[in-house]
Amino acid sequence: MKNTTAIGSTAFTGDHLDLILNADPPIKHLVFTLDADEAGKKGTEKFVKLLEEKLGGHPGLKVELRLMPDGSDDPDRFIRTSAR
């Protein structure tokens, strides 16, 4: 991936999503991955609600929600241990 950033789901706000949606040049593909634990699941639900509220007016934006396998703790550790 060319441009990436990481932020905890409990800290991800509508303002962060506004920055993404109003970037210049426009962002064309957004991938959102959270932990498989309860907090990650709640964060994903929060993110989906934000998308539903704010996504109108952004045709062509591809949004991917990647779900971690049950029992995995976080995306970084999963990649580091599974990419071998």
How is this structure best described in words?
The protein has 84 residues and is α+β, with helices and mostly antiparallel strands. It has one domain (9-82): Dna Topoisomerase Vi A Subunit, Chain: A, domain 2 (3-Layer(aba) Sandwich). The chain contains three helices and two strands. It has a two-stranded parallel ribbon with strand order 1-2. Strand 1, helix 2 (38-54) and strand 2 (62-67) form a beta-alpha-beta unit. The radius of gyration is 14 Å and the shape is globular.
In short:
The chain has 3 helices and 2 strands; from the N terminus they run αβαβα.
Please describe the topology of this protein.
Blueprint: H1 14-21, E1 29-34, H2 38-54, E2 62-67, H3 75-82
Parallel strand pairs: 1-2
The largest β sheet comes out as: 2 strands, parallel
Number of domains: 1
Order of helices and strands: HEHEH
**Low-confidence residue ranges:** none
**Percent helix range:** 25-40%
Q: Order of strands across the widest beta sheet? A: 1-2
The geometry reads as globular
Q: Say what the CATH topology is.
A: Dna Topoisomerase Vi A Subunit, Chain: A, domain 2
What are the key terms here?
84 residues; alpha+beta; Dna Topoisomerase Vi A Subunit, Chain: A, domain 2; two-stranded parallel ribbon; 3 helices; 2 strands
